[in-house]
Amino acid sequence: MVVPLAPGDAADISSRAMAEVMAARLGVPVIAVNRPGAGGAAGAAAVVNAKKDGQTILFAQNSALTFRPAIDPQAVPYDPQKDLVPLGISSRTPSVLAVRADAPYKTLADLIEHARKNPDKVYIGHPGAGSVGEFCIRLINTLTGVNLIPVPHTGAAPAVTALRGGHIDGVVLALGALGAQIKAGTLRGLATSNKVAEYADIPTLKELGHKEELFGVWFSFLAPAGIPEDARKALIAAVEEAVKAPAVAARLAPIGILQSYGSPGQQAAEIHGEFHRISDILAKARGAK
Length: 289
What we know:
- This protein is of the alpha/beta class.
- The protein is built from 10 helices and 11 strands.
- The chain has helices at 10-26, 41-48, 67-71, 108-117, 132-144, 156-164, 175-184, 229-244, 246-252, 264-288; strands at 2-3, 33-34, 58-61, 84-93, 95-100, 123-126, 149-152, 170-174, 187-192, 217-224, 258-262.
- Strand 1, helix 1 (10-26) and strand 2 form a beta-alpha-beta unit.
- The radius of gyration is 18 Å and the shape is globular.
- 48% of the residues are buried.
């Protein structure tokens, strides 16, 4: 199971939790291998080019399936809607713009005002080129007219480390990578893509008066197109069992990963719809320049 995320990320933890259940269902070991880079595209490309025998699968977030292909199609050597087959959506977690708790800006408006007064000097980290986080930063720039500088990292954990060390001013990451530190009071959430009861004090962009919401993060399993049909059906059944396992959900909820099963058909529709929404936003942004 190729995981195009850094070791130790909340999503990496979730993939390994589900791998245990899948292994029991399939009767073979399911070994997670981290291949971070290029917003998940490096790992996805490795799976696309793997043998089509059902022995190699992908656990990817939507950045590799919708954002990276829309933002920089020349850098993505695969078509996620043709070269990969869906096995099911597993999890969802909101995107959150967070800063250190001791930062002088207490709200998103404070951060934007700081960026206006310090043009091209406010740096916001994200998990990699073409990631959901990078697009969210660019969306905030479009909506507010400031220029927050996106800073790529090789995953969420390195971005959080850079923020905690004072090397960047903020991050846009999945709640799963930030939840524990927001609860502990070391980081402060300024905006989120979706409301979560445990973090109800973090507003969405629309609550703050903007016309667009940040994009959330979702995770799913895929396989190379062309694998044997019996292998595809077995993998789909294993994914569904792992996603719906109560023990897995209980293990992941505290770190902000919400198990939310979606069938392969729903997964294909979400990839298609989100890709076109991103493409539309990009086209409008480019037309406005």
